[in-house]
Amino acid sequence: MNGDENTLALGERGRPAPNREELVLERIERVRRSRPRLREELITLAHGAGGKASRTLVEAVFLEAFRNPFLEPLADGAVLEAMEHGEPAFTTDSYVVTPLFFPGGDIGDLAVNGTVNDLAMCGARPAHLSAAFILEEGFPIRDLRLIVATMAEAARAAGVTIVTGDTKVVQRGKADGCYITTAGVGTVPAGVRLGASAVRPGDAVIVSGPIGEHGVTVMLARGGLDIEADDLVSDTAPLNGLTALLLDACPGGRVRCLRDATRGGVATVLNEMAQAAEVAVVVAEEAVPVRPAVRGACELLGIDPLYVACEGRMVAVVAGDSADAALAALRSHPLGEGAAVVGRIAEDPPGLVLLKTGFGGTRIVDVLVGDPLPRIC
Amino acid sequence: MNGDENTLALGERGRPAPNREELVLERIERVRRSRPRLREELITLAHGAGGKASRTLVEAVFLEAFRNPFLEPLADGAVLEAMEHGEPAFTTDSYVVTPLFFPGGDIGDLAVNGTVNDLAMCGARPAHLSAAFILEEGFPIRDLRLIVATMAEAARAAGVTIVTGDTKVVQRGKADGCYITTAGVGTVPAGVRLGASAVRPGDAVIVSGPIGEHGVTVMLARGGLDIEADDLVSDTAPLNGLTALLLDACPGGRVRCLRDATRGGVATVLNEMAQAAEVAVVVAEEAVPVRPAVRGACELLGIDPLYVACEGRMVAVVAGDSADAALAALRSHPLGEGAAVVGRIAEDPPGLVLLKTGFGGTRIVDVLVGDPLPRIC
User: Fold this and answer.
1) What percent of chain B has pLDDT over 90?
2) Core-most of A232, B11, B66, B331, by most CB within 10 Å?
3) What local confidence, expressed as pLDDT, does residue A369 receive?
4) SS3 content of chain A, % helix, strand, coil (to 5)
């Protein structure tokens, strides 16, 4: 034991009780005055440690942007008010898009709209979202604030609240800035029951607007390609307004299946339907809405727009005799102005998607094998 | 245009219609025969692309392990049966623990138990979970299968089903093998209303068992430290059985607040309560259960067990006159055998946690500032 330790030990033992209490009281005042403020400019591991820095980050960034009575207690989870009558729907998606910011949006509205849309595709009215962040050490808090602001705005636009969340921080080189996982809950109104297996021969296949804009925009935003397309922006948008109109216009099970055409694009969605319902999906290539900028970029990149991700477009299969009503309903909404019937469901060949080309030919639209556009969402 | 392309073009045009159809039919058969099988040993970007490889991974690994009627349609989200009467609870957490496998568990049961526990801490009965995976390119599918098997087992043990999910793949060096984000929904029975702000002077503070085992176990599993502790395993466990017993034993609002002592440990949880309720939490150091192996490791590492994460221990604050009933209820469950009253709630000094040490002294247990144990969960 060296002298210093001895002195300390003697001092501790030797100090009379009142002095000790004063010391504690002084410390109490010091702790109380140090109220949390977010001073850092970059995310540190401490922001994910659950202590003072985590709390400050949560209060200064997340609570500030998302504030609502369910989130406010900042407890382990949110206790909600009883939801509207019907079957609950529940979904989740992780977002790892790169770059984080791109024309028309960022990972924030993508993460909100994507989960809102997954609920809408179940026929549900989205109600509440959770948001879990995996941040890389060194990520700029300024960027995080921008992302969180976009999320808050997207949530407002979709009519949902972000009620619970989590933040983890990993060391430099163990993530790519910011990954977000959202989950969502909502309610499926009575009488609505959608699913790929409900699709049947004679049904009409509708897409809600021009396809491929999100995927091509993100691809071009990565740079390195000598393509400029100033008028291209991501189509990221909440589709719950559109699905509500559609379900109202085609009641009684006449809407068979809704799918948002994200990873793998329209082609993948159609293949999943064909396989689940054991039907053929026959698509007229010329009827599929594709903006010239998307078509041009796809040609240069050597990819088919049918495989390119949208984040605000859906495929709707409705009873054949409801196609007109469905189209009118979709077109009455700003996000459905470009809706079009692109094909029909047939009996044969079951499990496959056939594309009728402009030249009178037919080709099989198979599911994607590789990944032409990694980390698009 | 070179010769080959010419030949192809001529051949296509020159071929009579029936031949073309034969070609399509042949192709149809070939596509149909190629049913998905998981042949790869490592995760590739294609597994996250939403196409054939994604589908195969989901069917061969996730659906196989988690199978239940809600998950089976593999739609954008799960449509559930109406849940039991009460207020819905909703929570989420991301898991980035390293190493992925450690004595007593792995990231899989951690992700299930953690979210089950967050629901239980709201007083809810956990019902359904979502699971979203962010995988690094090159991650062994064998390891993924192990993790998924642990998740399935943990879900069974906690009485919950995993009903929806997502898989994203990022390039090598953009993650650390596997990150998992779970979200959970459950129902808070009528009459239960827990929260840090419900804590009041005179209440008893209980911990459900020895603390710090998860954090120390993971720390040691990282190696590089010359400490061996063969009998140390993570305490990861679902606490919903324990909370149900406790709420039954202390009805009518006598359970004030439940918190699982994860990141930041018991000290952080107590500080959050002290601040939210503007009360003092006075803890008797000698009453806090800490196993010798944990105490020893903490001394060598220079950390206080009060700040070390548990993943299967909770802090319960109950009305002072219910302490005995609460303790009896907890101790009747295998996960609560080591439960102990560790302190009480006082009026002064509001917002602080005071520790009465063995030597008759008092020290303030402040919230964590840095991060002594990053990526513990």
Assistant:
1) 79
2) A232
3) 82
4) 40, 20, 40
Q: How far is A367 from chain B (nearest CA, A)?
A: 6
Q: B353 is written with which tokens?
A: 């946690």
Report the distance separating Cα B102 and Cα A239, nearest Å.
43
Give the class (CATH, top level) of A45-188.
Answer: alpha beta
Separation between Cα atoms, residue A269 and residue A306, nearest integer Å: 10
Residue A190 main-chain phi, psi, to 5 deg: -55, 140
Kindly report the nearest CA distance between residue A24 and chain B, in angstroms. 7
b/e burial code for range A310-338 (CB count within 10 A of at least 16 → b)? bbbbbbbbbbeebbebbbebbbebebbee
Residue B6: other Cβ atoms inside 10 A: 10
- In degrees, rounded to 5, the angle at the alpha carbon of residue A182 between the alpha carbons of residues A177 and A188 is 165
Cα–Cα dist A51/A45, whole Å = 11
Per-residue burial over A238-276, b = 16 or more CB atoms within 10 Å of its CB, e = otherwise: bbbbbbbbbbebbeeebbbbbbbbbbbbbbbbbbbbbbb
CA trace torsion A344, A345, A347, A352 (10° rounding): 100
Specify which residues B206 forms β-bridges with: B316, B341
Q: From residue A85, give the alpha-carbon distance in Å to each of A255, B7, B80, B85.
A: 21, 64, 13, 11
Rounded CA-CA distance A254/B218 in Å is 54
As for the ipTM of the complex, it is 0.90
Q: What is the pLDDT of residues B232-241, one digit of tens each?
A: 999 999 999 9
Three-class SS state of A315: strand
Size of interface A-B (CB pairs under 8 A): 313
Query: Which of the four CATH numbers 3.10.20.340, 3.40.190.10, 3.90.650.10, 3.40.50.2300 does domain B196-364 have?
Result: 3.90.650.10
At A244, is the pLDDT very low, low, confident or very high (cuts 50, 70, 90)? very high
Higher-confidence residue of A33 and B277: namely B277
Interchain pair A54, B20: CB under 8 A? no
Q: In what order do the strands lie in the sheet with A78-79?
A: A78-79, B87-95, B178-188, B125-136, B161-170
The 8-class DSSP code of residue A84 comes to P
* Nearest of A376, A218, A207 to residue A290 by alpha carbon: A207
CA nearest to B209, candidates B307, B303, B331, B94: B331
Of A173, A108, A45, whose CA–CA distance to B171 is shortest?
A173
Answer whether A108's CB lies under 8 Å from A155's CB.
no
User: pLDDT (tens digit, 9 = 90+) per residue, A111-144?
Assistant: 999 999 999 999 999 999 999 999 999 999 999 9
Extents of the domains making up chain B: 45-188, 196-364
Q: Which residues pair with A315 in a beta bridge?
A: A207, A259
A198, with CB counted inside 10 A (0-12, 13-18, 19+), is middle
CB contacts of A132 in chain B (<8 Å) are 92-94, 181, 183
Q: A210 vs chain B: nearest CA distance in angstroms?
A: 20
Cβ <8 Å between B51 and A264: yes
